[in-house]
Amino acid sequence: MATSTGGDPHLERAYTLSGPEDARALYDEWAATYDTDLTGETQGYVAPSVTADAVVTAAGTGIEVLDAGCGTGLVGVELQRRGVATIDGVDVSPGMLERARETGAYRDLSEADLTAALELSDDRYDAVVCVGTLTHGHVGPVVIEEFARVIRPGGFLVATVLDDVWESGGYRAEVDRLCAGDVLEAVSIEIAQYRSGQQVDCRLLVLRVR
């Protein structure tokens, strides 16, 4: 695996997860130190800030947002700082959700396994944001179509895909398929900083639902 972890044992485990139960156990254990481990200079986890900028640029601030794989709430906090007031979050880890709740950035938080169908109605949100979840050992590309289902027509999916799995993990092929099938329109797909301290990049997707 090419992605640098900077020797962080939690990150090393995160990139070799075997499924949702394994993910829940890791992130429950990691919840207390996750923010400090990732946002310091060693890792420089800038993806939440970069992605929040992209959400606001694409969709504005007067929107309802689902933060899918919200973790401790780093993305929700960045969205709130930019003026987005209505944010719901889902995550596989109760421990992470408890930390997200403490931020005060979210209207609603609930546990969800993103490898399964979401218990949400069609056309529920103006935008879905997903940061740090489309990566090694986490959630595969099939979730992109499920995200599109819960976004209102004309709304946006803004997501990071770790750069070294963008093609090998099937994410590019799935985005191409959904765009060809008139489910999504690619507004932009750019290389962006992800963990700047380790020179790890991502593909930052801004996709409009047709």
UniProtKB/TrEMBL annotation:
It holds the Pfam family Methyltransf_25. One of its GO terms (molecular function) is methyltransferase activity. The keyword Transferase applies. Residues 65-155 form the Methyltransferase domain. Signal peptide: none annotated. SUPFAM superfamilies: S-adenosyl-L-methionine-dependent methyltransferases. The keyword Transferase applies. It comes from the Bacteria. InterPro entries: Methyltransf_25 (IPR041698), SAM-dependent_MTases_sf (IPR029063). CDD domains: AdoMet_MTases. One of its GO terms (biological process) is methylation. Gene3D superfamilies: Vaccinia Virus protein VP39. Keywords: Methyltransferase, Transferase. PANTHER family: JUVENILE HORMONE ACID O-METHYLTRANSFERASE (PTHR43464:SF23), METHYLTRANSFERASE (PTHR43464). This is TPR repeat methyltransferase. It comes from Pseudonocardia parietis.
